Amino acid sequence: MTEPTELQQFYIPEEQSVYLLSQSQARQLREWIERCRHQLAQVGYREVELVGKGAYGFVFAGIDSAGDSHVFKFTRQNLPQSFHERLEEEAFMLEQVDHPRVPKLIAYRTLRHQAMLVMARAPGTNLEEFSLRQGRLTARLVIGIAAQLADILRALRRESAEGRLVVHGDIKPSNLMFDPLTEQIALIDWGSSVFAQLDAEGQFLSRNVMALMSADLQHTNARMGDVYYIGEEQLNGALSSPRFDEQGAAATLYALATAQSSRFGHETIPATSLGLPIEFARVLDAMLSNDPALRRRAGDYFLQHMPRIARTLISEPVAAPESPLVPVWVRSLEQEIETVIYSSRKAFLRDDHHLDEARDDTLSAINDVQLDRYYKQFMQGMGDLEKAFLVAVGRLGKYPVVGGLAVRWSDAGVEFDTTLSLNEPSLRTAFVAAVNNMITLARAIRRRDGVFKACLFNARRTLHVDRDDASQPFVPDAARAIPYEVSPTPELEDASREHSYFEDGPDPEEFLRLPTVMIEALSRLNAIHHTGMIIFEALPTHLKIHSYYRLLDPAREAEFRACLETLLAAVPQIDGLGVSGYMKMPYKNTRHFAHRTQQVDS
User: Fold this and answer.
1) What is the rounded CA–CA span in Å between residue 379 and residue 228?
2) Which domains does the chain carry?
3) pTM, rounded to two decimals
């Protein structure tokens, strides 16, 4: 077997939950954020707040002495110099764009050796957050957003005096601010923008022969946008073109109309099945087509005809609330929840999983429950449908929800065992749409004897144990305890309906083996009526214990608590690195669905 190679195309779409950082990392993060706030206050800004963060930096907002709202983009201090230089490049590119739907550059500054980009602040919230609260956006709203996006793209296609076209390169819902009062959008985050190498017709942009001879026409200058939204050309390193932004716009509109977080599900849930005006729906499906020529024609049609389509009168009948295809429980708890999803048994979703052992070893070497959020390589070898399913599962984790799900594929169809407890009643409609999308996508996947599992836990309850080096044991603080809730339910009369921690046998993708005393404690827990999960994530100097437990038989609380205490007391016996997780449903309530390739057109 060949040696594992390093992960390629490293990509981080989101920042790791602060509650999963080690104590020292979390402290450094808090100190750095507070230092940024303090420095902004010192130069005259008030009401300074953190409004966003990512892998490469942070975004703050504040009000200046004139009462104008600005946003401030900082890069992380521990990044290489090239990342700090990219912030200056972003300022330069933003300065080239003059459009009312693009917040203007105010300044690029260095504040005490810290690079900072200052921009006008667009009102409202970003469309990803809006979508998560609203679910599927109405046809009228989608059409209105589409018309504004088309207006921006037409402006970007117009050459500057120097014969240059700007490509944004990362159009997606979270990069579009939306004001619910005016329903106006603003395109932000120009960190992936470049000057186009080709025009919309695929011709080199330079009109100067000498410039063409000196230019690098073999290598793309494009930067990697969000892989969930960019098109095939940008993903595969084609020369940069305005067509990149057409693909981002189409993926964004599709995601907003379907309440998804990617473009990948467009063949299973086509735009024509969503109740959109049929002309617009067909154009959107064509823009997402696998046929490059059809995509280009549809993109041209979109830009040319969107002003007319936007004038279409759209009736909005009051729709009945969408019913969940699997049970969704809603509870209103006082505690705040920051959901994190740990999913396992994904290898079978790759078409070539049985051929590429080297890549599997590479992925297994990354011991992180949030692997899916950092690497796109875990999706390599998957078709768009499998990617869409995993992204749909990931979207569930953007809601305040705890629980788990187990999915089993067979020739006969798909079976779901779920326990999903939503902590915010106002989000039920949007959450149900996300759950139903996940099931619709799963039904279209045809795999023989495949199993997929996911645990959703509250990262705020994660226990952290540190050690100086790998030769020492992990020793939890004596005052620590694995948290749990008590919620009595009627006793199960049919023992066969009880779910088990060991329902599907050992997980082949988990490489941490727990000591025998822990397995025995889990076996005793298994006999007590409860629901929950526990995940041990062992890193060289940091152990995380993620858990969610709800006891359903109060009479056995003492026994239940003793088992949890045994698990925690045995932590020093953990030997090795990796992840090991166990999940138990409250009872078996399997829902069966027949295979279905595509959602029916509306």
Assistant:
1) 11
2) 18-120 (3.30.200.20), 125-205+224-310 (1.10.510.10), 323-353+368-460 (no CATH), 462-588 (no CATH)
3) 0.89
